[in-house]
């Protein structure tokens, strides 16, 4: 109410076309931007993966050189985790969370846009390294001393450090934003224990982002100071410690894998429950398990470092803590199975991905427990067994989850439902391709093939399995092409998706048009229980009970500042890298001036009147 | 509406705090700081015990400042408290890491 | 607009009167949670590396207690000034509030001056960024804190100008409140810096 008071009579310039996308602060449009950018980087990372697999198809291959191979594997890992998986999750957070909690936008729409653009320019900076001829090649973990100035004198790792630093700002802002949104902006009646499971997952994920990303920030600053200002954090000759980098990286890195997988858990919970047409089994135990996983996620980082030699006490502690995580994760797996049990399951593409997720992720989890046994880990460490494990968790878990979510929420995001036949073809090629690629890698690892090697000698028993693995990679590639074809075909269809296109929607996003109007809810709904929309439907209602009268709706104004600020950081990044002080200072100055402008000129926003709402305006 | 609000405000203003408790917090912080500096400056206390005093004084002072100056003891601060506490838990594990597991 | 310039019309605790204000305060607290971890990581790096002094002077010779004590007093007093500013904000007394804010940043500038003086002294004594792991982690930790103080001075300075122009409103009040929380947080971090870095360094 007070929000209206200081927003009268300020005509706001509304942009069209490209400028609309550059200046938007609407969470739905930012979600689409995240999706496009994330998908773009996903294709780049996928291409890198295919090149890696072609190189490994036969022993003593020289399709790419050893240096290029190192660059490919580094960029594949970094791109997929930071620039493909996370943005696609952010796409779904943006597209869905405000709708699920019955809000008109996120808590900080301006910061939301800023988060997207810093991520995008950070990712761009990282990938420009391919054209600059200085590509990061120290692995996505960038271990020192390999990544230090002594052994990596070029600018390759500088691109890694600065690209991730800039992209990391965006992620941290996103985490703070979504936490504040979920705490403060829920519709009347939506208590914490009535929130949809996806909202819970994103709430906990955001908390992990807030507490884990600053650790990466400091690690990257230290590495940057070592590389650019002759500091000695990791320089052993001057008293630095290489083990310190491992610790700092994994104190961030382990929560990071939970940042990736928890949203997938949330998506699967929604999809499984919707397409079994049943209430999610064990809702409160799901919530508790999510919180427990997140907490334990911070206490297990050293299981990545068993072979570093921390001694039996540390290894024992971290081993037990790691195995403990299997308990809440198991709770989740069984809850999904019990949700499916006795449900009238509808096998849509989203449901196939959701159901396919469960056994695949369980396999990844089980190999995780195997790796958690410290003495056994001495055998598995740095072999293809580890590669198989984390691809089962990340591709079999997270990427399956993302695809389930995309098919499920596509009509809500774009107003068009993806083609189901093509979708099922996509599922089966991708799913079979995935298992072909990575299942054999378990055995490659167990018989001793080390990871991150450029090539291998013949007749060690590696040859056949590597061929199988590469064929699988191509199948995944074909699957991805099918998805792209599906997206293109669908975008030519009529925008005819119903409010509740799956007819079994349970949460608030299915109670409003697809795609929703700019202001989401004409009247903020009143939530009367868990599965709020399902509850109303079961009582024969056609829409949610409103919690407020119809009235003018206050909206934040679009702004170009987030874009300009990110360009400033992007320029400053080059300045730091190539020792051009004027560029560094100039870039930072651009960013600071934008912050100043934002602080000095209040954003009064604008109102959408009732008549405009009748017309159903979309910006 | 505005008149309504101002009477409401009138009743609340009586409960509003004076500068007294902030000055008390300041003096408390001052004393804690002085104890810490004195423990080091005297040079007569053994190293381990000095460490204990230093860390103890710092933690107490932080509690004083967080609760009085940053209003953490006021209503509606559940999430700020959770945020800082969980941050502190992460920091605590990292300090253990730094002390015991970097140069094991 | 004019409604907000009148002190009488301002609601009780104007910083929390609007959803935007409440969002800002909550979001800022979450940011401080992140900052806690940021400084915690810097502290733990310092703790891990502090004994590796290479050819540089050891901490016990380097640090001068009187300078550190002066810096501590300045920042502590500055934090008190800032809490008085928030109290004036709650009482809707704009002029005293500006006065307290000016006192806050003047003391902040004093702290920065002292830190710059201290760093130049150290550099003369051969304690530079590339000297050792100890020096690198020292400058990074204390420098990060100093950068936070500098940013705070600029920020609060800008807010003073805004208050003079726009008055105390439900838009400006949350900004003042949040900047005060930030300033106290910087002081809290300093409590750990003088304890862990300087006093423990002095003890050895």
From TrEMBL, chain B:
It is found in: Cell membrane. It is a multi-pass membrane protein. The keyword Transmembrane helix applies. The chain crosses the membrane at residues 23-43, 49-69, 81-103. Coiled coil: none annotated. One of its GO terms (molecular function) is cytochrome bo3 ubiquinol oxidase activity. InterPro entries: Cyt_c_oxidase_su4_prok (IPR005171), Cytochrome_c_oxidase_bac_sub4 (IPR050968). Keywords: Cell membrane, Membrane, Transmembrane, Transmembrane helix. It comes from the Bacteria. Signal peptide: none annotated. Its main location: membrane. One of its GO terms (biological process) is aerobic electron transport chain. GO terms for cellular component: cytochrome o ubiquinol oxidase complex; plasma membrane. PANTHER family: CYTOCHROME BO(3) UBIQUINOL OXIDASE SUBUNIT 4 (PTHR36835). Belongs to the cytochrome c oxidase bacterial subunit 4 family. This is Cytochrome C oxidase subunit IV family protein. The lineage of its organism: Bacteria, Bacillati, Bacillota, Bacilli, Bacillales.
UniProtKB/TrEMBL annotation, chain C:
It is found in: Cell membrane. It is a multi-pass membrane protein. Belongs to the cytochrome c oxidase subunit 3 family. InterPro entries: Cyt_c/ubiquinol_Oxase_su3 (IPR024791), Cyt_c_oxidase-like_su3 (IPR000298), Cyt_c_oxidase_su3-like_sf (IPR035973), Cyt_c_oxidase_su3_a-hlx (IPR013833), Ubiquinol_oxase_su3_dom (IPR033946). This is Cytochrome (Ubi)quinol oxidase subunit III. It comes from Cohnella thailandensis. GO terms for biological process: aerobic electron transport chain. Residues 26-202 form the Heme-copper oxidase subunit III family profile domain. GO terms for molecular function: cytochrome-c oxidase activity.
